[in-house]
């Protein structure tokens, strides 16, 4: 494992200011919820929808399976290469939302069981390899790592890959989630080192 490889677009595989680890550290603000799937609901609401769209866990999983292997970069400076995620593809989810939209969506706010939120521009949210993960490296996601469902946005810092996700709020324009209101960058591109709000 080396930090000197290059990506196809010419950028270094390891973003600036990062170090490699084979571990998968657990970083959580607050306590770790134990999510019960009985009664669990995934809700899509907000801008451009006349009424919410809802799925239970089995319905959500049936939307379309996807697997991808990607690097993972935490704003606290560690990176882990070649994480294999399996879950529901962003394309499958969006294909069920888009036909109901009456207005253009500019961004989303992801909501989690614990009350955590994080914002994403629509183009970042819809990046083709993003997914709602249920498994990591062949094993079901543990609660510490976001199980039963974690959104994975591989091209941004890991706080944009929220744990215990259970909803999407559609927005007409970008807003700020939890960490973005508390000093973190609104977008979080690792190769531009977009760590903190003062850099905007």
SS elements, strand count: 11
Termini separation:
33 Å
Q: Secondary-structure element sequence?
A: EEEHEEHEEHEEEEH
- The overall pLDDT average reads 95
Q: Structural class of the helices, strands and pairings?
A: mainly beta
CA-atom Rg in angstroms: 16 Å
Q: Give the number of helices.
A: 4
- Total tally of structural domains: 1
What's the CATH architecture name?
Answer: Alpha-Beta Complex
Strand content: 25-35%
Low-confidence stretches: none
In the CATH hierarchy, the third-tier topology is known as Sulfite Oxidase, Chain A, domain 2
Structural features, described:
This protein has 200 residues and is mainly beta. It contains 4 helices and 11 strands. The radius of gyration is 16 Å and the shape is globular. The two termini are 33 Å apart.
Tell me the layout of helices and strands:
Layout: E1 19-20, E2 42-46, E3 53-55, H1 57-61, E4 65-73, E5 78-89, H2 90-97, E6 107-112, E7 117-121, H3 122-125, E8 131-136, E9 139-140, E10 150-152, E11 165-171, H4 178-181
Parallel strand pairs: 1-5, 2-11
Antiparallel strand pairs: 2-3, 4-5, 5-8, 6-7, 6-11, 8-9, 8-10
Keywords:
200 residues, 6-stranded mixed sheet, 5-stranded mixed sheet, 4 helices
Task: Summarize this entry quickly.
By secondary structure, the protein is mostly beta strands.
């Amino acid at each position: 494992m080396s930090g000197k490889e290059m990506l196809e677009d010419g950028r270094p595989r390891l973003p600036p200011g990062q170090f490699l680890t084979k571990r998968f550290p657990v970083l959580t603000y607050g306590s770790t919820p134990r999510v019960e799937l009985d009664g669990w609901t995934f809700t899509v609401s907000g801008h451009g929808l006349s009424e919410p769209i809802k799925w239970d866990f089995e319905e959500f999983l049936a939307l379309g399976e996807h697997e991808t292997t990607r690097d993972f970069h935490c704003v606290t400076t560690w990176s882990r290469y070649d994480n294999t995620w399996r879950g529901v593809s962003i394309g499958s989810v969006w294909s069920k939302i888009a036909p109901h939209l009456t207005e253009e969506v500019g961004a989303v706010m992801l909501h989690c069981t614990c009350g955590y939120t994080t914002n994403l521009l629509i183009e970042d949210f819809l990046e083709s390899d993003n997914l709602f993960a249920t498994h990591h490296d062949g094993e079901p996601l543990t609660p510490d790592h976001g199980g039963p469902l974690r959104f994975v946005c591989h091209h941004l810092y890991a706080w944009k890959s929220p744990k215990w996700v259970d909803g999407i709020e559609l927005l007409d324009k970008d807003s700020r989630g939890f960490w973005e209101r508390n000093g973190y960058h609104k977008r979080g591109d690792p190769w531009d080192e977009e760590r903190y709000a003062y850099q905007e």
